[in-house]
Amino acid sequence: MEKKVLIITGGNVEEVVLKRCIQIHQYTEIIAVDRGLMTADQLDLPLGYIVGDFDSVPEKILDKYRDSVVPIETFPAEKDMTDTEIAINLALSHGADTIDLIGATGSRLDHTLANLHLLLNPLEKGVSACILDSHNKIYLKKDSFLIRRDEQYGDYVSFLPFHGDVFGLTLEGFKYPLLGVRLGAGESLCISNEIVAEEAKVIFEKGILVVFETRD
Asked: Are 127 and 144 in contact (CB under 8 A)?
């Protein structure tokens, strides 16, 4: 059985998105991270684990869960990893096959960018991981893949190179196709493409792509 883990972390959490994801994906484990615990508590979600430094969580909510059977792991505010990284490592140690992160975007762009980089660890371990909010599905790919038009998250698909150039990039089934190009840092070539076939192919020889499935 596939182990699907949802991480609710401390950025902007949109309840509509959260409820829809829980309904669709039927997660086997939900991890609340720091301020994400407040949203999980409001929705009375069945939590499997709680982690964080809890510097932004009311004491009465923490007391409620300290009296429950849900494991809580508390970390100091001054540490070498963010709470979200700790939660991802925890999900990986629990044998996650897929990891969805909600609350990983928001007003702090440094946190958003850091959370995007945290997707690299699951990628290297062969675990599918993505960041979700009402407008974006963001994930990394190191091998060629397909996107079905009837399953895409929004109307647009964008690609950026991650940790160096992407070589031999070919796009088939897109409004703006490509054939064997090198996609380098500082280029906006692959922003706001659209899928026009039932199934779009993203083929590349080397590198890592950041993929954005987006809607306005």
From this structure: no
CA distance linking residue 38 with residue 147, whole number of Å = 34
Summarize pLDDT for 67-114 with one digit per residue, the tens.
888 999 998 878 889 999 999 999 999 999 999 999 999 999 999 999
Residues 82, 100: Cα–Cα separation, whole Å: 17
Could you identify the residue written with the tokens 């963010």? 82
Round to whole Å and give the CA distance between 131 and 84: 12
Residue 30 near residue 52, CB atoms below 8 Å: no
- What mean pLDDT do residues 174-182 have? 98
Band of the pLDDT at 2, cuts 50, 70, 90? Answer: very high
Taken as a whole, the chain contains a residue count of 216
For residue 46 the two structure tokens come to 């069945």
CA 126/CA 24 separation, integer angstroms: 22
SS3 27: coil
